[in-house]
Structure formats: C-alpha cells, structure tokens
C-alpha cells in the first residue's frame, strides 16, 4: 500500500491570521503524519468542516436587527454589516475569517481525496471518500452563496463565482480563477451526488459532528432549494426522513425547552444528543458571548412581530413558544448558544471562544420541503408541512385555531394568490425558527427581499434587491491569487 504525507496545505488566498501575523502555512509544517490507513484519513477529515461561522455578519445584514442605541458592544464585525459596508477586520466572526476557514476545510478534503487515490481508492475507503467529497461541496456552497451573486438560472452562466479547488496546494503562490456561479454549482452537485452514496454512518464515533447520510441529504435539500430544483428538494427530504417522522426529531419548544432556564437551554440547544441537530460544527467565535450586547441586535419590536405576542399578531394568530429574554430592556433574544472558552495556558486570563453551531436541522428540512411544495403548486402538501411545524411551536396547540390555510394566509398578507401567501408564511416560519442563526440572510438573498435599517437618530438605509452590496467582497489577500474583486 502506498503512503502519502500531508501538511494541511492550504490555498495561499486563505492566509490565516488566527494568532498574530503568522500565516496558516507558517504554523503547520511540524504536524505531518502519514496518511496510510482509513482511520488516519478519518482523523484528517475532522478538519474538513469550517472552523468559523457566518452568523455575526449575516444576522447584522438582515432584517432581524435594528439600532439598539445604548447597548455596549460596538465593533466593526457588527457595525459594518449593519450598514452593508465591507467589513474592516479579518479576525474571528468576520467574512474574511469565514472565507479562510472554508478554504482550510477544503484543503483538508482535498488532501484526504489525494491520499485515498494514492492508497488505491478501495472499498475500505468508501466512507472517507464520501465525507471528503461532501465536505468539499459544502464549503464551496457556502462560499459561493456569500461571495457571489445568488444562483439565478438566467444569469448564473455569467455571474462571477469563487475558485472551486479540486487538488491540494503544491506551491506557495498559485493563481486561481473565479469562473462562474453556474460552474461552481455544477461542481458542488457533482461532488455531492458522487459522495452521498458512499457515506457510512457507522464510520463515525459521534455522528452529529459529521455528514451522516441524513445530514448529507439535508445538505442536498438546501442545495436544490437554492438551485430552484424543487422536486429534488422533496426527493432528498423524503430520503432524509423516509417515514415522514419529522415530529420525533423536532425541538420540543412547547415542552422540555419551555421549562428550562436560559443557561440550561443554551447548554442543550447545540448538544449532539439533540435529535434536531443533524450536523454540528465547532467554530471559533465570540457570538455566544456578544450577540445579546451588540448595538445592532434584535429589538422587542422585531422579536414579537416575528413570534407574535406583546400585542403583535403573526400569521398563526398566536405567540410562538420560543423563550425570549432581554438585556438592558433593549436587546431581545432567544438563548441558543453557550461559549466554550479555552485559555491560552493554565494560568492565563486570555483565550479563545468556541461556539457549537447547528449547520443542518430537522426543522430546516421540513420547512424547505414546504417551500418546494409551494413553488410546485402542491398546496395541500405545503400546508401539511407548515402545520406539522406550527403544531410544535404553539402552546396549547389547537388545529382548528392555529393551523394555516389558504384563506388565512391570504387574509394575513393581504394577497389574492394563495401560493404567494403560503410562500410568505414559509419564510416567516423560517425566520422565526432560525432567529440568531444567520440563515435569514440567505432567504433575503434568494427571494430578493429588501432590507431597511434605521439609526436611533432617524436615518433610514435600504438595501434594494439588486444592490451590489448584497454580495460580500472577497478578502484583499485573494488579490495575490489573481482573483477579481466583486463590483461595487
């Protein structure tokens, strides 16, 4: 059996700045090992998931936040996105940090794939190959949806994509090309379709931290939803939940969750034992510590306009069961996250914060299938999925009172087309479920929803559907790899 050495080689365009000014390449030459067994390749693939998250900047860009003047945390990673400015800063929770970590994860996937090929690509390596292909697809998917225009079949063949990297780095500096969004999507689909059947859940010690078959199908659901291939959304959702047993895996907001304190909820929300969490990722982030105290955060008015209650009426006509707390009576939030703080040394007072993030959940699969049914005109199935969700999100649920119907959504949204009303209801349910999780921004992009932000002094800023600032600027370091900047 042949042997291959790896050094966690990484794209030069993803120069890391996690610790001082040293690049990621500078830090890793001594971590070499021989990738000569399936178990060693599996160990490498632990690093094939991005070690950063997008929540801080995607929440700030969305309509989930407002100017909570008086809150203490004023930082570029929160302020710049609120005004849709290119973020000044490259440290954790910034777009640059996310870009770097995604390409670091891609480098690990590619190194694993190269090792698998060198070792003969035998059946004993099928599961590792599947995980490597799907993780490579996932990181590219997230990058293209943040740093390129949202997929549109009418323009995808000309819209600038991001580099789709298919092999490990062999040189210090290498030029890359962005190609097109259509090309990136083609490569993502190729990797996903090839990799998914190879995955073996039994290969994982803790399944929630890896792409199991269910999690990979959940990824396929999201991919095809963004690609607007709605029948495949439904197909993959039904493979992920073959018995349509979403109820057994949904978060128990109307029972267990409702009884917990804020601390207990934050500890349990992202646990591997929570069946809703189809895939979790450990990310370097201050989000759990700071999101409640950012100046640009979620207000009383926003939280209750989405959840209902406090005199506000949502499409359900009832307050949703999410637990809400407030800080300074200004920032209102659901306590979903807890920080794992790691000191730089035993006696140090400084360190790094880590946050577990749900990358895919049962609820996302269900609501994505509901949206797909709406878009295909399958209204009965769409409302069945919507009401499965509603039944788990309203205290003292009464189907006769709380269930959504065509007439109810048309009345609430003041529209004459039940399909339009149902789509708005799906998007509102997604907004409620994923509050503080960063996914609202992607719905805003997909459906070209305008966003209005205000300041406490009355200034109004609006991001229109075709505003170029909806596409994040690629990092300045990427210029060294010959990449073209996004237009402004």
From TrEMBL:
Signal peptide: 1-19
InterPro entries: SusD-like_N (IPR033985), SusD_RagB_dom (IPR012944), TPR-like_helical_dom_sf (IPR011990)
Localization annotation: Cell outer membrane
Keyword Ribonucleoprotein attributed: no
Record keywords, A-Z: Cell outer membrane, Membrane, Signal
SusD-like N-terminal domain sequence ranges: 24-225
Gene3D superfamilies, per the entry: 1.25.40.390
Keyword Iron carried by entry: no
Domain RagB/SusD: 324-450
Similarity comment: Belongs to the SusD family.
Name of the protein this chain belongs to: RagB/SusD family nutrient uptake outer membrane protein
Lineage, opening ranks: Bacteria, Pseudomonadati, Bacteroidota, Cytophagia, Cytophagales
């Amino acid at each position: 059996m042949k042997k291959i050495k790896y050094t966690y080689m990484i794209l030069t365009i993803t120069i890391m700045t996690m610790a001082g000014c040293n690049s990621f390449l500078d830090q890793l030459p001594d971590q070499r090992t021989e990738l000569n067994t399936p178990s060693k390749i599996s160990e490498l693939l632990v690093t094939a998931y991005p070690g950063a998250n997008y929540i801080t900047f995607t929440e700030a860009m969305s309509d989930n936040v407002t100017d909570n003047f008086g809150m203490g945390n004023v930082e570029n990673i929160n302020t710049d996105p609120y005004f849709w400015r290119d973020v000044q800063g490259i440290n954790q929770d910034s777009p640059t940090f996310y870009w770097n970590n995604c390409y670091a994860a891609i480098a690990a996937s590619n190194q694993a794939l190269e090792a698998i090929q060198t070792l003969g690509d035998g059946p004993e390596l099928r599961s590792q190959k599947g995980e490597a292909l799907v993780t490579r697809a996932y990181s590219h998917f997230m990058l293209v949806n943040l740093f390129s225009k949202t997929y549109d079949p009418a323009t995808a063949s000309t819209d600038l994509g991001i580099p789709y990297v298919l092999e490990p780095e062999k040189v210090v500096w290498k030029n890359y090309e962005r190609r097109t969004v259509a090309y990136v999507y083609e490569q993502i689909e190729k990797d996903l379709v090839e990799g998914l059947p190879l995955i073996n859940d039994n290969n994982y010690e803790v399944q929630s931290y890896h792409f199991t078959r269910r999690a990979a199908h959940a990824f396929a659901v999201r991919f095809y939803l963004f690609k607007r291939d709605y029948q495949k959304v439904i197909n993959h959702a039904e493979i992920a939940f073959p018995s349509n047993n979403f109820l057994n895996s949904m978060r128990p907001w109307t029972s267990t969750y409702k009884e917990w304190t804020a601390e207990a909820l934050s500890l349990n929300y992202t646990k591997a034992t929570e069946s809703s969490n189809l895939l979790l990722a450990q990310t370097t982030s201050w989000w759990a510590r700071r999101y409640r105290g950012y100046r640009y955060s979620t207000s009383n008015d926003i939280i209750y306009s989405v959840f209902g209650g406090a005199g506000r009426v949502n499409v359900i006509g009832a307050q949703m069961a999410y637990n809400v707390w407030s800080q300074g009576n200004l920032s209102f939030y659901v306590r979903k996250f807890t920080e794992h703080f790691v000191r730089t040394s035993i006696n140090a007072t400084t360190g790094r914060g880590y946050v577990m993030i749900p990358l895919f959940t049962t609820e996302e699969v269900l609501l994505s299938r509901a949206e797909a049914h709406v878009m295909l005109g399958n209204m009965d199935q769409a409302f069945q999925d919507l009401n499965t969700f509603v039944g788990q999100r309203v205290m003292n649920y009464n189907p006769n009172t709380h269930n959504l119907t065509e007439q109810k959504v048309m009345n609430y949204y003041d529209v004459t087309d039940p399909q339009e009303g149902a789509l708005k209801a799906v998007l509102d349910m997604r907004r409620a479920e994923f509050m503080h999780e960063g996914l609202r921004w992607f719905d805003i992009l997909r459906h070209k929803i305008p966003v209005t932000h205000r300041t406490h002094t009355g200034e109004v800023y609006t991001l229109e559907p075709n505003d170029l600032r909806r596409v994040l600027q690629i990092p300045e370091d990427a210029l060294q790899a010959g990449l073209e900047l996004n237009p402004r």
